[in-house]
Design brief:
Blueprint lengths: L10 H26 L6 H13 L3 H30 L5 H22 L2 H26 L9 H19 L8 H32 L2 H31 L1
């Protein structure tokens, strides 16, 4: 799931990656909103809120939204730099390692929230999650050649609508029947990703209500397990190939 890159990936691997990480992202986004009233991954909404606050002259509040946006961008930038460095060094597990790093930081964020008072804990949670969501989005964008997005629900919903329209044209005999399978493959990916994001949000809020900030640490643990599993699978495959030489 976190090893093969670009055209070496098939639709099954893309769906597995998208559904798993979208569920985690949906859970984190919804749990954070339930707790503090902010979305850490919704950059469209955050930019709109920033523009509204700037128009009303509420500069201090606007700086908060600007910080969220910048944290997301910095997360994507850091992720890309680390991935690029890893690929240049021939580290085939670099994507899994970055996800492992995300999981560790997420677990640390959840645990640190317990020790911080609300005045410090709220901005730490929002900025921290925005950074991690930017980092995660960059990972899936690179590894899938931009076929997979885990938090861009607006774009995926648009793609679903376009796919439905193209399928209607095919059924009416006004589209290329040869495109049917490709369209259905993309629609399965996008619909499944949106549903995973939704269900992840439901589970995330329920987990937060049961465990509080430890739910973020648990999400980090889940990411860590997924990353370590991919790293171990890659190690075993490499060992088998070496044994054939």
């Amino acid at each position: 799931m976190l090893i093969r890159q670009g055209d070496a990936r098939d639709s099954r691997l893309d769906r597995k990656l998208a559904f798993a990480l979208a569920a985690v992202a949906g859970g984190l986004n919804a749990a954070a909103f339930h707790e503090v009233g902010f979305f850490s991954a919704n950059m469209t909404g955050n930019v709109s809120a920033l523009s509204s606050l700037l128009a009303m002259g509420q500069w201090a509040k606007g700086l908060g939204y600007l910080a969220i946006i910048l944290a997301f961008v910095v997360g994507a930038m850091v992720s890309t730099l680390v991935i690029g460095a890893g690929l240049r060094r021939g580290i085939i597990t670099i994507y899994a390692r970055v996800i492992l790093g995300e999981g560790m930081l997420l677990a640390l964020l959840g645990i640190s929230r317990i020790a911080l008072d609300r005045a410090a804990g709220v901005p730490t949670l929002i900025i921290g999650l925005a950074f991690l969501m930017g980092l995660q989005n960059a990972i899936v964008t690179h590894i899938s050649n931009a076929r997979v997005r885990t938090t861009h629900v607006s774009g995926m919903s648009t793609d679903i609508g376009i796919g439905l329209a193209r399928m209607i044209d095919i059924l009416r005999g006004k589209g290329e029947d040869a495109d049917r399978e490709a369209i259905m493959t993309r629609m399965r990916l996008h619909i499944g990703t949106v549903i995973s994001f939704l269900l992840g949000g439901v589970v995330g809020v329920l987990a937060w209500r049961l465990a509080g900030d430890l739910s973020f640490a648990f999400a980090g643990f889940v990411l860590g397990v997924a990353a370590l599993t991919s790293i171990e699978n890659a190690r075993q495959r490499t060992a088998r190939y070496d044994g054939l030489d």
